[in-house]
C-alpha cells in the first residue's frame, strides 16, 4: 500500500469514527440525526469521488508527459547512435584507405 493510499484510508477511518462519536453524543432526534448523517456521508462520498477524479486526471497528464519525454529521449538516443555509426564508418573507410596505400 502506498503512502497516499494510507493517508486516504486514514482520513476515511477518522471521518467514520467522528461520525460514530457524533451519533453517540447527538442531542437530536433519530430521524434528524439520520438525515444529517446521510447528508454528511453523501458529502464525504462526493469529496472522495472528486479526489479520485483529480487523481486520475493528474495520472493521465503525468502519463502523457512521461511518454513525451521518453519519445524525446528515444529520438535523441537514435540521433546519437546514427552519429556514432557515421563516425565509425568514416574511421573504417580511413583505415581501409591507409591499408590500401601501404599494401
Explain the overall architecture:
By secondary structure, the protein is mainly α. It is rod-shaped and about 110 Å long. The chain has two helices and no strands. It has helices spanning 3-24, 30-102. The longest helix has 73 residues, at 30-102. It is 92% helix and 0% strand. The chain has one domain.
Spell out the key features of this protein.
103 residues, mainly alpha, 2 helices
Find the structural class using helix and strand composition. mainly alpha
Structural domain tally: 1
Shape field: rod-shaped
Q: What distance separates the N and C termini?
A: 70 Å
Q: What topology emerges from the helices and strands here?
A:
Elements: H1 3-24, H2 30-102
What's this model, at a glance?
Helix content is 92%, strand content 0%.
